[in-house]
Write a structure and sequence with these properties.
It is built from 15 helices and ten strands. It is an alpha/beta fold and 349 residues long. The strands form two sheets. Strands 1-2-10-7-8-9 form a six-stranded mixed sheet, sandwiched between helices. Helix 3 (60-73) crosses helix 7 (157-163) and helix 12 (267-281) packs across helix 13 (287-301). The longest helix is centred in the middle third of the chain and has 15 residues, at 189-203. It has helices spanning 5-8, 35-41, 60-73, 86-98, 113-121, 133-146, 157-163, 165-174, 189-203, 223-226, 248-258, 267-281, 287-301, 323-327, 340-347, and strands at residues 31-33, 45-50, 78-82, 101-107, 125-129, 150-151, 180-184, 212-218, 261-265, 310-315. Helix 9 links the parallel strand 7 (180-184) and strand 8 (212-218). It is 43% helix and 15% strand. The structure holds ligand F0G.
């Protein structure tokens, strides 16, 4: 059975007879219903889409498979991206799979350990620059103007084409679009991709409603909310530590056309949602991914009308990517001697 985004959604993607139809099994991620949290938040239904179940542990694989397939089809030999970590992990994996050499440019010392380990293992050339993501993206854009290297950041429209398939899957599974879609916003490509996906399915008659797109930036990296680039973005959620998003205009269009909103969530709100999701529902997303649920909790607190609403929160990447942040959360760890008595004592109290 052929699997993956290119096969499943071929009719909606820029696939030609010359497109190599490879896959690592991306897409088809779980949509988990959480009625207890729905009751707590006060919405009708609440689902989490676990994009961390993609082959490299984040939603980036949906767009990367399309971007890298098209680059291969067009005869590219090398691909390049700037990244806060997940795009580089995905580019490195799909570069290996399609036989294109991956080059990744990352902010030195500022990407989560698991993501760096992935780029190392998949054999990417890793260029760690003394700067932030926005500077890295600027450099990569300039490099591709003068070198024959395919750009696989979300400025490459094939990336958003692939990422829109997550919206298709939600509609296919719920048999309708949700009322509200909550997701983190960093470089702002994903919110634009989801909106494109929901609109295309709506036009194709597969959904009657269009969701309101609710995007959440980290408060220390919230250029869209503030209406101006942020020179030195800061947040615990390193994946969305971005001060000048490439798809800014598309994100604003998605917000306005859908009647949604883009808001800021603080690091405390992110970390609270990160813990709550893991401890109450067994869903371990990375900190940036928790911005979706942090945002929903904020909406509930602010009295946003949620009663009866069907809400989907996107968990964009797995928590295993960022062990350092996970280990900074107070855990319940007891070390004892290897005896029955010592372990029995540790069971209580
Ligand atoms: N969540 C995670 C886990 C991410 O890695 C990213 C972006 C986002 C959310 C935001 O999505 O950029 O489409 O608004 N990560 C990029 C990267 C920037 O380089 O991996 P966006």
């Amino acid at each position: 059975m052929p699997h993956g985004v290119l096969h499943r959604f071929e009719a909606f993607l820029p696939v030609t007879p010359a497109t190599p139809m490879l896959s690592l099994g991306e897409g088809d991620t779980p949509l988990v219903s959480c009625p207890r949290l729905a009751a707590e938040v006060g919405c009708g239904e609440l689902y989490f889409k676990l994009e961390g179940c993609n082959p490299t542990g984040s939603f980036k694989d949906r767009g990367m498979v399309v971007a890298v397939a098209k680059a291969a089809e067009q005869g590219a030999r090398r691909i390049i991206c700037a990244s806060t970590g997940n795009t580089s992990a995905s580019a490195a994996a799909y570069g290996a799979r399609f036989g294109l050499a991956p080059l990744v440019v990352v902010p030195k010392g500022n990407i989560a350990l698991g993501k760096l380990a992935q780029a190392v293992m998949y054999g990417a050339r890793i260029i760690a620059v003394d700067g932030n993501f926005d500077e890295a993206l600027d450099i990569v854009k300039r490099v591709t103007e003068t070198h024959p290297i395919a750009l696989v950041n979300s400025l490459n429209p094939h990336r958003l084409e692939g990422q829109k398939t997550a919206a298709f899957e939600i509609v296919d599974e719920l048999r309708e679009a949700p009322d509200l879609l909550c997701l983190p916003v960093g470089n702002a490509g994903n919110i634009a991709a989801y909106w494109k996906g929901f609109r295309e399915y709506h036009q194709a008659g597969r959904a009657k409603v269009l969701p309101r797109m609710m995007g959440f930036e980290a408060a220390g990296a919230a250029p869209i909310v503030q209406g101006a680039p942020v020179a030195h973005p800061q947040t615990v959620a390193s994946a969305i530590r971005i001060g000048n998003p490439a798809s800014w205009r598309l994100a604003v269009a998605a917000r306005d056309e859908s009647g949604g909103d883009i808001r800021a969530v603080t690091d405390d709100e992110i970390l609270n949602a990160y813990r709550k999701l893991a401890r109450q529902e067994g869903i371990f997303g990375e900190p940036a991914s928790a911005a979706s649920f942090a945002g929903l909790l904020q909406l509930a607190r602010d009295g946003y009308p949620l009663a009866g609403q069907r809400v989907v929160c996107i968990v964009t990447g797995t928590g295993l990517k960022d062990p350092d942040t996970a280990m900074s959360v107070p855990g319940d760890l007891v070390e004892t001697a290897a005896t029955i008595e010592a372990v029995e004592r540790a069971l209580i109290g």
